[in-house]
Amino acid sequence: MAAAAISAIMTMTAMIMEIFFFHGMIPSFV
């Protein structure tokens, strides 16, 4: 149960960081 929660948190964190990365980097290059 704890492992599943940690996995879900890691997945959501990776998705959030990916969104911030693309929204932050692409406009600066454009």
What is the CA-CA span between the terminal residues? 44 Å
Note the run of SSEs as H and E: H
- Helix percentage range: over 70%
Low-confidence stretches: none
Q: What's the gyration radius in Å?
A: 13 Å
The helix count comes to 1
Q: What kind of sheet is the major sheet?
A: none
- Arithmetic mean pLDDT: 82
Number of E strands: 0
Instruction: Decide which structural class fits the backbone.
Output: mainly alpha
What is the 3D form? rod-shaped
Strand content: under 5%
Describe the model:
The protein is mostly helical and 30 residues long. 93% of the residues lie in helices and 0% in strands. The protein is built from one helix and no strands. The chain is rod-shaped, with a radius of gyration of 13 Å. The N and C termini lie far apart (44 Å). The mean pLDDT is 82. Keywords: Membrane, Transmembrane, Transmembrane helix.
Summary?
93% of the residues lie in helices and 0% in strands.
Features:
single chain; 30 residues; mainly alpha; 1 helix; rod-shaped; membrane; transmembrane helix; transmembrane
Question: Topology, pairings included?
Answer:
Layout: H1 2-29
